[in-house]
Predict the 3D structure of the following.
Amino acid sequence: MGNAAVANAYEDIFAAIDVLNSALDGDDVSGSEASSEADPLHGTGDTCLDILSGAAGVEARVAGLKAGLQ
């Protein structure tokens, strides 16, 4: 990419996606361990919902960016 700011922005986006993938893989341990032990899918479900709700916002912003290019 010719524009360094654009290239850096995409590097940051790709890094953020790596973080989200790590969270899905269970590398990001948060919340109560006791709760996770009692219901291991509860934490996974919460993580998935967090990612999906955040992704919806990102998709809306990307759509706005694309619309501005036309």
